[in-house]
Amino acid sequence: MSEKLTVAVLGTGIMGAAMARNLVRAGHAVRAWNRTRAKAEPLAADGAFVAESPAEAVRGADVVLTVLYDGPAALDVMGEAAPALSPGAAWVQSTTAGLDALPALAAFAREHGLAFYDAPVLGTRQPAEAGRLTVLAAGPEDGRERVTPVFEAVGARTVWTGDDGAAGSATRLKLVANSWVIAATTAAGEALALSRALDVDPQQFFALIAGGPLDMGYLHAKSALILEDRLSPAQFAVSTAAKDARLIVEAGERGGVRLDVAAAGAARLERAAAQGHAEEDMAAAYFASFDERS
Question: Which is nearest to 140 in space by CA: 106, 189, 100, 174?
Answer without folding.
Answer: 106
